[in-house]
Specification:
The complex is a heterodimer of chains A (about 240) and B (about 290). With about 240 residues, chain A is mainly α. Chain A has helices at about 1-15, 30-55, 55-60, 65-75, 90-100, 110-125, 130-135, 160-170, 200-210, 215-220, 225-235; strands spanning about 155, 180-190, 190-195. Helix content of chain B is about 40%, strand content about 20%. Chain B has 9 helices and 12 strands.
Chain lengths: ~240, ~290
């Protein structure tokens, strides 16, 4: 039955050597295991390469060999479930953080989150965004609840992620974890993936809006003079959807 | 009848639409028959979609699916198919193609074009899935013959007859990859010319040529279809024969790994044009 063959082939690809004899392979000059190994190697190497493309900063921080090792372990527990390889790796940051091999690099999980956020900003669906014209039509500004654009991610880290990224890219000589943390807003602005640093108040404001709070709730405790700036820089800049 | 008058000479070879070449292609706009777009590379929005729209203004495109898993027992993913149909609708491609292969099992994408046994059951599965895609797209698609590194003892149908019967039952056309034919001939001893001879000449609407890698495994060699080098002379020879059999087919030069400078790829496309023109003249004279 073809269903049995495809189930066993998938198992063999993912490392189950006991599945190979059940495939009924016409061996010839090469035995069945070596023939399956051609497919298994391609399966693993191509998916590790896809992950590397989606996490370029992690690769630069730990090197290609260490990344390949992490990627193969991740592939074994969290294989792709979407047809686009660009969408593979949503669970990788959490995996990196929990893997014993990266325990000495406490910031690596957050570096992976930054990479993933930039990946999402690059490829998220194009949807109409909330604009100044939308704002002008509103009668009750305070009651406004917005829905984040799928390209938007907020990343808050205890570590200096942008400095770590620049050091990994060879743009800076060194970063100290004593430099402190950073809060980032990453999204697609005017068609381009964009990453900006948010101060404490702006991060709290954006987090509240992303979590579905009203504009009045999000601005609670903020100096009133900041609202125009926050609206212009973050709300009316392709970060939220037109429909909400 | 002059060849130009039946349009055959006008169709130049195409190349793949690959990110390292996007800007240069849009800037230089070299004369090419079409650009082949790997569908799954363009899921979602953003710059890639915007850049593809630019390319679409300058060139015809073909949409080449690599992940619908039409040889899979598991049903075609409806969300994936809807998205694929939207891409086809948005780009109005000259050709739409997929593979005689499978890649989806238990909801997991295995990221390879995995081999099928050539059996009645596999024909039934392919026909069912191709029907579904063609019904959704409301157009015929082309199905590409695979390169393989193993064969199954329970295959009962020769490769050529299998491809011909799949096309007959489903109404799909064929994308004949002559590099894959050559790889299979060397790996399994299946003569490429025998496969070509089994096909209905009217069913072949596109031909792929590509480079391959010869892997030395110590006690044996295996040809790997890696699309990472120039087309081998033996494959150009098969291509010339394929043009004689299938003169109406468009040609695409594939290059997907170790992607070279654009000029290298354009040179391969120009070679295909020269081979094709020579064979069409020969066919016309004969």
């Amino acid at each position: 039955m073809l269903a049995d063959l495809q189930r066993d082939f998938a198992r063999a690809l993912r490392g189950d050597a006991l599945a190979v004899p059940r495939l009924g392979i016409d061996a010839g000059a090469l035995n069945a295991e070596r023939r399956v190994a051609v497919y298994r190697n391609h399966h693993r190497i191509s998916l590790a390469a896809a992950l590397a493309a989606n996490f370029p900063t992690v690769v630069k921080v730990i090197g290609e060999a260490a990344f390949q090792s992490l990627a193969l372990s991740f592939l074994a527990i969290d294989p792709p479930r979407e047809p686009s390889l660009a969408a593979y790796g949503a669970g990788f940051p959490a995996f990196v953080e929990s893997d014993p091999r990266s325990q000495s690099l406490v910031y690596l999980g957050d570096v992976a989150r930054l990479d993933w956020a930039l990946n999402v900003a690059e490829r998220a669906d194009d949807l109409p965004t909330f604009t100044a014209a939308c704002l002008a039509k509103l009668e009750q500004l305070e009651a406004l609840r917005l829905k984040p654009h799928p390209s938007l991610t907020l990343v808050s880290s205890l570590y200096p992620l942008l400095r770590i990224r620049d050091v990994a890219a060879g743009l800076e000589e060194g970063a100290s974890l004593d430099d402190g943390g950073v809060a980032l807003m990453i999204w697609r602005k005017a068609g381009c993936p964009t990453c900006v640093v948010l101060d404490h108040a702006a991060f709290g404001f954006m987090l509240a809006l992303v979590n579905g709070q009203t504009l009045a709730e999000a601005t609670e405790g903020l100096p009133p003079e900041r609202l125009p700036e926050l609206l212009a820089q973050f709300v009316l800049s392709d970060a939220f959807l037109q429909s909400f | 009848m002059p060849l130009d008058s039946i349009g055959l000479m006008e169709t130049r070879a195409g190349i793949g639409w690959r990110s390292p070449h996007h800007s240069e292609l849009l800037e230089r706009r070299p004369r090419l028959g079409f650009l082949e777009v790997h569908a799954e590379n363009h899921m979602g929005g953003g710059r890639r979609t915007a850049v593809l729209e630019c390319a679409r203004r300058d060139y015809p495109v073909s949409i080449h699916g690599v992940g619908l898993s039409l040889g899979g027992v598991e049903p075609v993913d409806g969300v994936h198919l809807d998205w694929f149909a939207e891409l086809v609708s948005a780009t109005d491609p000259v050709l739409v193609s997929e593979h005689v292969a499978w890649c989806l099992q238990d909801g997991i994408y295995l990221n390879d074009l995995l081999p099928l046994p050539y059996t009645e059951e596999a024909l039934d599965v392919l026909t069912r899935n191709i029907d579904r895609v063609q019904g959704r797209l409301k157009r015929a698609i082309l199905m590409e013959n695979p390169s393989t590194y193993l064969a199954f003892t329970h295959s009962t149908i020769p490769e050529g007859a299998f491809l011909a019967e799949m096309a007959r039952r489903s109404g799909c056309g064929l994308l004949l990859d002559v590099n894959n034919l050559y790889v299979n001939e060397r790996n399994h001893g299946v003569p490429a010319r025998v496969v070509m001879a089994a096909l209905d000449p009217a069913s072949v609407a596109e031909i792929h040529v590509a480079g391959h890698h010869i892997a030395d495994l110590g006690d044996a060699t295996l040809l790997i279809d890696d699309h990472g080098s120039t087309v081998a002379d033996a494959v150009w020879n098969l291509y010339r024969e394929a043009i004689l059999r299938f003169p109406q087919a468009r040609t695409l030069v594939e290059w997907d790994s170790r992607i070279p400078a654009l000029d290298v790829l354009l040179n391969e496309a120009a070679k295909a044009d020269v081979h094709r023109a020579a064979m069409l003249e020969l066919r016309h004279a004969g």
